Here is the input.
Amino acid sequence: MPAPTFAPWLLAAILLLVLGLALRLWQRRDRHFVSSATVAEAYDRWTADRLLERLWGDHVHLGYYPTGPLPNPGQPNGARKRTGLPTRGRAATTVDFRQAKVDFVHALVRWSGLDQLPPGSKVLDVGCGIGGSARILARDYGLDVLGISISPGQIQRARELTDPALSCQFAVMDALDLDLADASFAAVWSVEAGPHMPDKQRFADELLRVLAPGGRLALADWNRRDPADGPLNRRERWVMRQLLDQWAHPEFASIAGFARNLRQSPFAKPAPGGQALATEGPDLALETGDWTAETLPSWIDSILEGLRRPSQVLSLGPGAVLQGLRETPTLLLMHWAFATGMMQFGVFRAIKAPAARSGPGFDLVGSSPNPGPH
Here is the structure.
């Protein structure tokens, strides 16, 4: 019996119906930022419905698509070859979506120099999600990791997914008010947490406050085009409002803007007796880059993954299907914003100026600081 055929107009009508439903759901149910509680609530819901985990695996962040690659994130091609990073060019789109997310972690580790830390070094993962990056840092690099998130649901799931043998702990904590001692980590890692922070300067201050003298910062974020490079036009302002309201973002920093936040933080300055690290100043050896091309395929892949793994969506019931449709317009707007230069994927690496001697009482190699009763 021949397979049934459908007229092109019928397929187009079905597609328009699906898109119309997605837009209706999208317009009626935004998640605009009110306070940190709204961020926690949004991530609790995303974690509880398991849709992102089923489709994206352990990592709720963009992937890294190498070769043919990529805009230079701070190194010339020769240097990128020596460190194992791909050389410049066009990002490949044949990488498996989930593998691209794993590759992103390793690429940022190498670019930021976290692979140079001795085994057992204490690392803080700020905005750890369900612990995917933290587990890689602990398992593949021998680091002692504390992951924190404002979402109790994420922390519970991170603990469930983590082998007790790994040197990896998790705690509920507000990134703008870390319940951690000054200068207590050899490295601080944060991926795509910054857009949820209403006070970018305080976010930068807290990251550097807990970073030990001589410690390394590795950070990646969604950033807006810097106002100095041109104001948003009317269309871009409308898109920006959607990107903020749909996913509980109070504001996006620009790459240059957050670099200023880091440099002007009082915790970027060396302690008495400290030494300068870079000719740019006596405070923080900071470098930034733009990995927009490396990460851009992630947005469309995020949508296609539902088509590649339909059973993962359907097994969660009709609510998951509606949820997937509801997120599609925002994913498409994100792709447009990053593809047109309205948004950029910024990466930041820094080394905090060392003091003549570390403060007493902090062993930067060993078990993670006790995160308290959170």
Remarks:
- Residues 79 and 114 are 17 Å apart (CA to CA).
- The chain has a mean pLDDT of 81.
- The two ends are 63 Å apart (CA to CA).
- The beta strands are 122-126, 144-149, 168-172, 185-191, 211-224, 284-290, 343-352.
